[in-house]
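User: Could you go from structure to sequence for me? I need the amino acid at each position, not a summary. Structure tokens:
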């Protein structure tokens, strides 16, 4: 709000009484503006002081709450009880970190003041603990485990930067009725989009899922056998293409050949990603008999473990 300038005051708009009334209103309006500014400034300072006090109290509360938990924590996760070392769960920014600091309102069960309840999958929590103990030993991540890791905010976990987890769940169900695990083995932007790096990291790795992002769409292809640089024959009847609408297009064939060692190419699957594909339009896929070229801005390759 801006104060009404003095030049807006007038001396003549009618008789003297009208002039006096008008100027009195302007004076009152200006006084109200000044009072509002002063009150607003005082309230801002008061809010700032309260915020600083709250932060200090929270820090004290964190120390107090953290000291409440013993060296081993008793958890009831979905009806299953676990005795876990506190050090294993002390992961900065995670659900457990917030729990220990008191920022997550988790209370002990009424009949057992030392047992804390978490409403999650109790069986899957065992896998979460195994992951925390041996996270560097098994790079394959089951999709159910991935969801739990995301809930507990362990490492801000996300498997793909191209496709959301729910869509990966759908693709996993197309691949197998059993549990499917994915492992990211190649990210184009981290390897200068070089086909040679693709082959170095992806050849002989078994079944793979490739996800592609262009400026306009996201799509992918599942190949149920290994890539090989110089070309080979193998069955590909379970391979399929995933279009941008998340529709599965089965690719039925007896032989799938990689005919171009300078690209990521399954020509008999109607699919090719060229070398340095982010700089050209040589990449293509075929769907329903039509060939379409594309230029990726990112693509990821995952090995698939059934």
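Assistant: Here is the amino acid at each position, in order:
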């Amino acid at each position: 709000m801006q104060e009404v300038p003095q030049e807006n005051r007038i001396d003549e708009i009618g008789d003297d009484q009208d002039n006096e009334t008008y100027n009195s209103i302007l004076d009152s309006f200006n006084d109200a503006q000044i009072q509002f500014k002063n009150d607003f400034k005082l309230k801002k300072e008061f809010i700032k002081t309260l915020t600083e006090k709250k932060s200090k109290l929270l820090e004290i509360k964190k120390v107090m709450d953290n000291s409440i938990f013993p060296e081993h924590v008793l958890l009831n996760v979905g009806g299953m009880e676990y005795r876990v070392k506190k050090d294993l769960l002390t992961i900065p920014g995670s659900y457990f970190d917030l729990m220990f600091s008191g920022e997550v309102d988790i209370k002990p069960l009424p009949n057992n003041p030392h047992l804390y309840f978490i409403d999650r999958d109790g069986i899957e929590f065992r896998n979460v603990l195994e992951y925390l103990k041996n996270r560097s030993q098994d790079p394959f991540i089951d999709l159910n485990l991935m969801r739990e890791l995301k809930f507990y905010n362990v490492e801000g976990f996300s498997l793909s930067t191209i496709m959301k987890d729910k869509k990966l769940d759908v693709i996993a169900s197309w691949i197998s009725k059993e549990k499917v695990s994915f492992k990211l083995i190649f990210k184009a932007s981290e390897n200068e989009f070089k086909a040679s790096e693709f082959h170095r990291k992806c050849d002989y790795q078994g079944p793979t899922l490739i996800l592609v992002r262009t400026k306009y769409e996201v799509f992918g292809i599942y190949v149920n056998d290994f890539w090989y640089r110089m070309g080979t024959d193998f069955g590909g009847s379970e391979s399929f293409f995933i279009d941008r609408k998340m529709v599965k297009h089965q690719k039925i064939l007896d032989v799938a050949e990689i005919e171009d060692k300078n690209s990521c190419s399954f020509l008999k699957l109607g699919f090719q990603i060229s070398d340095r594909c982010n700089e050209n339009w040589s990449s293509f896929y075929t769907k329903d008999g039509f060939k379409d070229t594309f230029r990726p801005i990112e693509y990821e390759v995952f090995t698939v473990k059934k």
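One structural detail worth keeping in mind: The chain has three domains: 6-66, 72-151, 165-305.
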